[in-house]
């Protein structure tokens, strides 16, 4: 009986954790001239268990936390100050809030009142958040903890000055973000950190901000050089990865004369001996078979994930190929129309629409980027996407990683993983189909079983050829073998055969140009001029802790 009771309790706890949701966490940080901050957290959640909501804030050092107030639906909770009792009943805690003092921090607590949907606004004061270094002022603070009962689906932290000071710009303010996938930027005099995808159990939100001397008069002096403080946070991060390997660049420059030999050895090992693919994903390292059908239920994200993560020698598909594949899919599906260029008969433009609907939010995000680049006339012309990417590089650069994460999730949801990035037997078979399909398209003229191909399948073939970066070759083969069918396909998207082939090549070049431009502008992100964040790193932070939520 005891064993059955334990099993039932375990099942109930698992169900409770799965059913809870944190839909959104929106945090406003109002900095005072002395470095203190009023922090307002808005939690949009669903609870199914526990008697209270609590949030640990540890690693405070010289800082302190006080003056907690909580409201819900316009109702102010009764504040008990530092006299909160975690052992009291569900009914006693209802409508009340308080603080638990610990040796290295505090816990902010308030009663649930009921189980179900809540939208709480909690406000509290943190003294000593901005601290004085010898050469700058700043902080490295964890605003959202890992280990919450449910991973936040969206999170945003906005940091603003609550006193009269010069507007924050990259001339006097630098920013870095850690522990989450998203962006952090200085926008209109504010620091804004926002997630770009749902977080995981280990996700957190750490913001590191550096201010020029003179903007604040911090009450807490930390001393020392800010760069030392920053260097600790950058350890283990993805910021400045290129700089970390500068010695390799120097070595390769010295050995430049041996470049052709090294490349030949590399190509021989990777291609001839077949050590191209990771056995963890594909079950084998050499894949030479053909597969005629479009793999993985036509899920481009899943195929892109395999191409990006499945090569042993970093021979992965470029992120711009993924973007180009979606552009071509939109053309094939009629979501984007190919239009002649009024300035040149040799060029085309792409006409977008504001009324297009998508079932996938990530695909919609990419479409909206292109729509924004197209401008008021909705016509994406030569170089417009590239120009847009220079100002919005953080959005574009973050998208492929989000696409790969979506593809990984597809494999996980299908039950194809033993664990992340390690396929079971069926998963490896399905993964191999992607490479086998590429082999089929690449060697299409050699296939004796190619048979008749429906126009709808031709569209998929060309989209995936774009993903595999062999679209021009596949289109040339189709034109040679099936000119009438290719003409039918071209007419279905409103262009002639030559224009279709040109459009395929142009979308590939356009995606490449935009992504290259975005990458070049992001190269300075290690200097704190905003952009996408690093999931790793962030060491030396204050505040935060592990866990929280219901108990």
DSSP strand content: 15-25%
- pLDDT < 50 runs, ≥5 residues: 1-17, 242-257
**Mean residue pLDDT:** 87
| Strands ordered across the widest β-sheet | 5-4-9-2-1-12-15-14-23
Structural class: alpha+beta
Q: Note the main sheet.
A: 9 strands, mixed
Shape: elongated
Distance between the termini: 26 Å
Number of helices: 17
- The tally of beta strands, per DSSP, is 25
Radius of gyration: 27 Å
Helix content: 25-40%
**What's the number of structural domains?**
2
What does this structure look like?
- This protein is α+β, with helices and mostly antiparallel strands.
- It has 2 domains: about 20-240 and about 535-550, Sandwich (Immunoglobulin-like); about 255-260 and about 280-530, no CATH class.
- The strands form 5 sheets. Strands 5-4-9-2-1-12-15-14-23 form a 9-stranded mixed beta sheet.
- A hairpin with a 2-residue loop joins strand 18 (about 335-340) and strand 19.
- Helix 8 (about 300-310) packs across helix 12 and helix 11 (about 385-390) runs parallel beside helix 17 (about 495-520).
- The radius of gyration is 27 Å and the shape is elongated.
- The relative contact order is 0.14.
- Mean pLDDT is about 85; it is low at about 1-15 and about 240-255.
């Amino acid at each position: 009986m005891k064993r059955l009771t334990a099993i039932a309790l375990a099942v109930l706890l698992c169900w409770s954790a799965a059913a809870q949701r944190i839909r959104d966490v929106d945090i406003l940080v109002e900095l005072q001239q002395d470095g203190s901050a009023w922090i307002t957290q808005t939690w949009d959640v669903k609870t199914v268990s526990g008697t209270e909501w609590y949030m640990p804030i540890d690693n405070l050092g010289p800082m302190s936390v006080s003056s907690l107030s909580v409201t819900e639906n316009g109702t102010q909770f009764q504040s008990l100050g530092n006299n909160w009792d975690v052992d009291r009943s569900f009914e006693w805690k209802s409508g009340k809030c308080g603080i638990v003092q610990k040796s290295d921090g505090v816990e902010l607590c308030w009663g649930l009142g009921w189980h179900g949907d809540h939208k709480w606004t909690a406000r509290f004061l943190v003294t000593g958040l901005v601290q004085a270094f010898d050469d700058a002022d700043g902080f490295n603070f964890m605003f959202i903890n890992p280990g919450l009962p449910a991973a936040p689906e969206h999170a945003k932290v906005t940091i603003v000055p609550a006193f009269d000071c010069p507007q924050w710009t990259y001339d006097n303010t630098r920013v870095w973000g850690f522990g989450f996938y998203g962006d952090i930027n200085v926008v209109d005099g504010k620091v804004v950190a926002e997630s770009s995808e749902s977080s995981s159990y280990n996700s957190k939100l750490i913001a590191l901000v550096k201010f020029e001397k003179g903007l604040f008069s911090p009450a807490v002096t930390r001393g020392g050089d800010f760069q030392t403080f920053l260097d600790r946070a950058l350890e283990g991060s993805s910021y400045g990865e290129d700089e970390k390997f500068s010695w390799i660049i120097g070595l390769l420059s010295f050995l430049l004369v041996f470049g052709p030999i090294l490349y030949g050895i590399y190509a021989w090992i990777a291609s001839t001996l077949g050590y191209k693919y990771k056995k963890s994903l594909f079950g084998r390292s050499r894949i030479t078979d053909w597969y005629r059908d479009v793999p993985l239920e036509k899920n481009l994200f899943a195929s892109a994930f395999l191409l990006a993560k499945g090569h042993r020698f970093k021979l992965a598909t470029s992120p711009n190929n993924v973007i180009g594949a979606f552009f071509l899919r939109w053309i094939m599906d009629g979501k984007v129309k190919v239009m002649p260029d009024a300035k040149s008969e040799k060029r085309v433009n792409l006409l977008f629409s504001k009324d297009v609907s998508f079932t996938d939010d990530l695909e919609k995000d990419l479409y909206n980027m292109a729509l924004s680049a197209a401008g008021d006339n909705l016509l994406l012309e030569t170089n417009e996407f590239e120009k847009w990417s220079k100002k919005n590089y953080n959005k574009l650069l973050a998208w492929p990683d989000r696409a790969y994460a979506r593809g990984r999730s597809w494999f996980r949801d299908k039950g194809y993983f033993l664990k992340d990035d390690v396929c079971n037997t069926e998963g490896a078979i399905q993964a191999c189909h992607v490479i086998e399909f590429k082999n089929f398209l690449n060697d299409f003229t050699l296939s004796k079983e190619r048979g008749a191909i429906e126009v709808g399948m031709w569209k998929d073939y060309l989209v995936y050829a774009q993903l595999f970066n062999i679209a021009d070759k596949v289109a040339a083969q189709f034109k040679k073998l099936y000119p009438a069918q290719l003409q039918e396909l071209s007419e279905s998207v409103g262009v002639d055969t030559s224009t279709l082939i040109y459009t395929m090549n142009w979308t590939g070049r356009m995606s490449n140009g935009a992504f290259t431009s975005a990458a070049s502008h992001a190269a300075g992100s290690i200097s704190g001029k905003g952009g996408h964040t690093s999931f790793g790193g962030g060491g030396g932070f204050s505040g935060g802790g592990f866990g929280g939520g219901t108990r």
